[in-house]
């Protein structure tokens, strides 16, 4: 079960994806996702120049040992580039192990804990009629939960709302190079506007529909506490990334003032980033992706730690997580007990001509499928038709005076 080859595949079928392909001497192939939106080539180099040479000739079996070897052995720990690279190796090794066992990965992780994974889609609109159309479309597709984002009166395009130049639609941000687009922001205008949006949505759709919102790190703890309080009557499933939370203790203030459930962590990359948030139960859902948090091995430890504090998994699933990373989340989410919800932004048809998936979405639930391993194979020939395109995520500035702001 020795690793014979380790290769990085970069492809841009509408947006950039970085994938790691490991092959054992007896021809078993494992795939890992190493996509770090807007900084893709840094991970490519980390893998190609520093990690892959260490993998050749190494036994594919001892996954924990390889994880520790790459994490501790580098001396320089943590960080999004390192952890995306470690994640890709770890995920590819789990894919290989499950293929050897001839089982879908979730079986190796303990077997299923549920029929499928509750998932939420992104409903958005510049104004209420557009938002309602988008919600209706998601309901028609079978979603039982929707994330609600809208434009803010007086502001231009807002990230996360359909039509925004830096939007996370299926074909995302590819092509916005050579410079990030810039958007203008006004937190007070946003705070005045958002409660009325949720009031209108609840009035139209009733109490059952699960509603989420992403604050995208734009508030201070005080502003987040105000928003959480004002949204309480609308019974949110969660309010996501209300602050950047690098200062984990800041969430104490938010928590003390609102019972709106909080989700956080899509930009975090280790369990340490959550230490205070989890041990003091300052959040309700962990948002990390397998892709950005060191793989299945590390994500499993994180969700087990969260479980001790009644905190659930709500793994990040935007289109910049590749279908390989999405499949990894689905296998893990199916197996663990403390699963909460899975974000699901379907990839474009073009992306799915490169990544051959076997996961499915039925009646609002996602299922990873029953093929051995992750159940996703990358078609190398199809991938080669879509070379890398430099692309950036947008940058946010305050409308008042142009100060760079969190986004
Ligand atoms: C989400 C996110 C994404 C991120 C994107 C950055 O909740 O899905 O906030 O839209 O902004 O993944 O690369
Ligand atoms: Mg988010």
Concise synopsis of the structure shown:
This protein is 36% helix and 18% strand. It has helices spanning 40-55, 63-73, 80-101, 105-108, 128-141, 187-205, 221-231, 250-257, 275-279, 295-307, 323-335, 349-354, 380-384; strands spanning 3-11, 17-24, 29-33, 117-125, 145-150, 182-185, 210-214, 238-240, 262-264, 285-286, 312-313, 342-343, 355-356, 360-362, 365-367, 377-378, 395-398, 404-405.
Q: How would you characterize the overall build of this protein?
A:
The protein has 407 residues and is α/β, with parallel strands linked by helices. The protein folds into 2 domains: 3-104, Enolase-like, domain 1 (2-Layer Sandwich); 108-372, Alpha-Beta Barrel (TIM Barrel), CATH 3.20.20.120. Helix content is 36%, strand content 18%. It contains 13 helices and 18 strands. It has helices spanning 40-55, 63-73, 80-101, 105-108, 128-141, 187-205, 221-231, 250-257, 275-279, 295-307, 323-335, 349-354, 380-384; strands at residues 3-11, 17-24, 29-33, 117-125, 145-150, 182-185, 210-214, 238-240, 262-264, 285-286, 312-313, 342-343, 355-356, 360-362, 365-367, 377-378, 395-398, 404-405. Strands 4, 5, 7, 8, 9, 10, 11, 12, 14 and 15 form a 10-stranded mixed β-sheet that branches. Strand 8, helix 8 (250-257) and strand 9 form a beta-alpha-beta unit. Helix 3 (80-101) packs across helix 10. The protein is globular and about 60 Å long. 51% of the residues are buried. The mean pLDDT is 96. The structure holds D-gluconic acid and magnesium ion. Magnesium ion (MG) binds at residues 214, 216, 240-241, 266. Magnesium ion is lined by residues 214, 216, 240-241, 266.
